[in-house]
Design goal:
Layout: H1 13-44, H2 62-91, E1 102-109, E2 112-117, E3 122-124, E4 126-130, E5 135-141, E6 146-150, E7 155-159, E8 165-169, E9 175-181, E10 193-199, H3 201-209, H4 212-219, H5 222-232, E11 258-260, E12 266-268, H6 271-279, H7 302-314, H8 339-349, E13 375-377, E14 383-385, H9 388-396, H10 419-433
Parallel strand pairs: 1-5, 4-10
Antiparallel strand pairs: 1-2, 2-3, 5-8, 6-7, 6-9, 9-10, 11-12, 13-14
Helix pairs in contact: 1-2, 5-7, 8-10
The protein binds heme C (2 copies) and copper (II) ion.
């Protein structure tokens, strides 16, 4: 009767949906039958014109009693039986020598998923699995209880700290599908998403054995790693290397200097202080600045923090800092891209993404989702409509009018973006505002 389930991406999905739909249909049928009869009787036998009806005396009916006991009993046993059968098929996938399991260890933490394959390949928030082969994901958690859910595969299981659980599924078609955390685990629970990419067996083997990303990161010196993270993680949106204060304090001569905080206390910027500032920036606010830095807890590894510390240590003015470049800067013919695609690249390159989300959540600035054409208000109460001219003005001179609920933290892009680039950004913002 009612069909609302997502695409069927695994072998078990049609079986599971079959029993699910039966239970739903039976429930709807009985709800309508019982409530319908109640409503019908209430109307048919209501008191009319102040006259009481004579009620016939009915002694009972063995036939009816037996029918309405036996039929629901059979239905309940039938539902329970298939529920158990299909549940068993879901949890114990038969060993098949032809089709070896793909084993993946998954670790949830606030707020991301780390995956490790048996050959040691690791990924964050992404798994790649071959079509047609059973995949077993062994789940655990580093901090609190999370829950791993891939709707199209019809698998969901809690990931519990200090214990292992697992999900098994055999993907039936290639494609990209979302996985969610479905156990509320704190502030960024809603962004605890992973991407499941189902590919051909050959593509899977090629991907699994390609360890070049990790190796190039491992082979980097800590300072080089830190320098590339400074750009990749968007620290450069808020921290300069040349002494100028942007949204946050400059990194120039930061290491080893005395820092003052808004509560009047001071400390010397050593390794521990920098580590704490990256993981929990709100715990100490530097004097003269606002609490605007996003917490990187759970989004950055110890190795990466080490790299950033080493990088910050080198920024002491003794030698010119090489212009930091993002790790993977491929050459692309920009004229072959659409304005929206070029705008999206700028959104990443010009680090708008550190302050503006695409999913509706407010970071340092308002989300770009549904921004285009929206009516808004400034802190002085004046209203505006986010049209092309307004967006252009916001990018070039953000300080002139401040959106209500936000502070003046956006760096002006005057002189750093051409007119064409701003048009591309507007096209991109418009594209994320049209419901996609
Ligand atoms: C959206 C802006 C923003 C981003 C992005 C950002 N920071 Fe910050 N950061 C700030 C602000 C504002 C402060 C000062 C207030 C405070 O102490 O929290 C700060 C403070 C710091 C401090 C302490 C500095 C001091 O003077 O005591 C360190 C270290 C730091 N950030 C490192 C980083 C690193 C490393 C990254 C990238 C991984 C990063 N920040 C990304 C805004 C940002
Ligand atoms: C360091 C953080 C930061 C960065 C980086 C940043 N912005 Fe902003 N942006 C803000 C803040 C905060 C506001 C709201 C306050 C204001 O109006 O200035 C804002 C406001 C805006 C607005 C107006 C939004 C509205 O709801 O009316 C637009 C458009 C905008 N930014 C575009 C961009 C673009 C495009 C980029 C990249 C080229 C960018 N921003 C980079 C922080 C940032
Ligand atoms: Cu979670």
């Amino acid at each position: 009767m009612f069909r609302y389930l997502p695409e069927q991406g695994s072998e078990i999905a049609p079986r599971l949906d079959w029993i699910h739909n039966w239970i739903t249909d039976l429930s709807v049928f009985f709800t309508i039958a019982i409530c319908g009869a109640m409503i019908y009787f209430a109307i048919r036998y209501r008191k009319q014109g102040g006259v009481d009806h004579e009620t016939p005396r009915i002694e009972g009916s063995n036939f009816l009693e037996i029918v309405w006991t036996v039929v629901p009993t059979i239905i309940c046993i039938w539902v329970a039986y298939y529920g158990i059968v299909i549940y068993n098929e879901m949890v114990d996938v038969k060993e098949d020598p032809e089709k070896e399991f793909v084993l993946i260890n998954a670790q949830g933490y606030r707020w991301a998923w780390d995956f490790q394959y048996q050959n040691g390949k690791t990924t964050t928030n992404e798994i790649v699995v071959p079509v047609g082969r059973p995949t077993k994901i062994i789940l655990t958690s580093r901090d609190v209880i999370h829950s791993f859910f891939i709707p199209v595969m019809r698998v969901k299981k809690d990931a519990v700290p200090g214990a292992y659980s697992h999900v098994v599924f055999t993907p039936v078609r290639t494609g990209e599908y979302p996985a969610f955390c479905t156990e509320y685990c704190g502030t960024n629970h809603s962004s605890m998403l992973a991407n499941v990419r189902v590919v051909s067996e050959a593509e899977f083997q090629r991907w699994k054995n390609d360890r070049s990303d990790e190796l190039s990161k491992l082979a980097m010196s800590p300072v080089d790693l830190g320098r590339s993270l400074y750009v990749d993680k968007g620290c450069n949106a808020c921290h300069s290397l040349d002494g100028s204060a942007v949204v946050g304090p400059t990194f120039l001569n930061l290491f080893g200097s005395e820092r003052k905080f808004t509560d009047g206390t001071t400390t010397v910027a050593d390794e521990n202080y920098i580590r704490e500032s990256i993981l929990y920036p709100a715990s100490k606010i530097s004097a003269g600045y606002q609490n605007l830095m996003p917490a990187f807890e759970g989004q950055i590894s110890d190795n990466e923090i080490q790299g950033l510390i080493e990088f910050i240590r080198t920024i002491d003015g003794s030698q010119p800092v090489p212009e930091p470049v993002a790790a993977e800067e491929e050459d692309v013919d920009l004229s072959s891209l659409t304005p929206v695609e070029r705008g999206e690249r700028l959104y990443r390159e010009k680090i708008c993404f550190t302050c503006h989300s695409l999913d509706g959540s407010a970071l340092v600035g308002p989300s770009f989702k549904d921004l285009y054409g929206r009516k808004g208000k400034f802190t002085d109460g004046q209203e505006y409509v986010a049209d092309d001219d307004y967006i252009r003005g916001s990018i070039l001179e953000p300080g002139s009018e401040i959106v209500e609920g936000y502070v003046n933290a956006m760096p002006p892009y005057q002189g750093q973006l051409s007119d064409e680039q701003i048009d591309d950004l507007i096209a991109f913002i418009q594209s994320v505002s049209n419901g996609d």
